[in-house]
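agent> Task received from the user: take the single chain below, predict its 3D structure, and emit structure tokens. No templates, no multimer pairing.
agent> Plan: (1) validate residues, (2) run structure prediction, (3) serialize to tokens, (4) report one or two observations.
agent> Step 1 OK, no nonstandard residues flagged.
tool_call: predict_structure(input=
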Amino acid sequence: MSPSEQESVRPLSSQFILLMALACGLCAGSAYFNQPLIYSIEKSLGISTSQAGFAVVIAQLGYVLGLMLLVPLGDFLNKRKLIVGLMVFAAISQILLSLSSTLATLYFFTLCATFGAISAQVLIPFASTISPPQSSAATVGKLMSGLVMGIILSRTFAGFVSTYWSWEGVYLSSGLITLLFAVLMWKKLPNTQPQVGLTIGTIYRSLFTLAHNNPHLIRRACAGALGFGILSMVFTSMTFVLGSAPYHFSDFEIGLFGLLGIIGIYSSNWSGKTVGQGRENLVAKLCIILMFGSTLPLYFAQQNIVVYAIGVLMAYFGLTAFHVLNQNLVYRIDLKSRSRINAVYMTIYFSGAALGSLGTVYAWEHFEWIGCVVLGLVFSIGILLIDRWDFKRMKKA
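)
tool_result: status=success, residues=397
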């Protein structure tokens, strides 16, 4: 779509934006169901805590693989078919996951379910492309709000269903809802035509070209990955912190505590609007302060739940606003390559989540909570250094 064509794009209706936001939340949220279910899965399958916790890492790895292999095809394939096809694949995988009775099937279908859950990452750049330029940042912010809401409610939903039914019921019900929603998306999403002159080979080769020719993209992605690593640490460890002494929360209570992340909806909207006003540096500085500062209240998680909650709020606000900022910055690189740009960015971004989850499981097992907090602090320092370096380079460009 050329700049002149994009100028003539009609504004998207609020109902359509809401529908896409719900789709993003539904798909992305399914990748986080297992975080409050670690102890329930452990008891059900008769496995160790670390084995059950590794399912969280598997979920992140499945998402990364989907981002790397499938999201780039959004610039080549019919986007509506790709989005709906991925939703159907994710739904069937979730239903099969609900039937898992061994560690092998748990890991395999977790990988498949999150591999298909990346449809939201095709939909977000698609929405920015079909939006008028003046409202593109706000549209991305609203879809990110839906994605964040899905992630937040997924933990509460999973905790509730697991407590009053079973962890298997979480995936069975989600799979059925996702199938229903796939039908709605097929009816509502506009049709698209593939870009002329592209092949699958050139698509994948262009990923390396984009990464090589745009160090700005890599810097934003790495900073975002470290931020997501912090949030992944917070939510992977939440079950460990709240499910043991002195709290001994149930799955549902852990899910309810995760509702603190609802602040991410506000931060996504605020970030989208503020970036649209050209105040990117303000957003970046505030986010870094919040993510860096969150490690102090998080340190006292096992002594005071209110202070712990403050740390969670700070981390979630900072990361979600930072993510919206990063996406809007990298989408400006090339309008025609947004799916591939998003694939490069999100692959690196979710690699940070996988690293955060894996680091958290290791840190908790060997150093307990203090190890998790130190991990978050190290990631925060990395964000500060990369972000300030990138803004300095942008000023010189």
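agent> Step 4: summary for the user.
Confidence is low (pLDDT under 50) at residues 1-8.
agent> Done.
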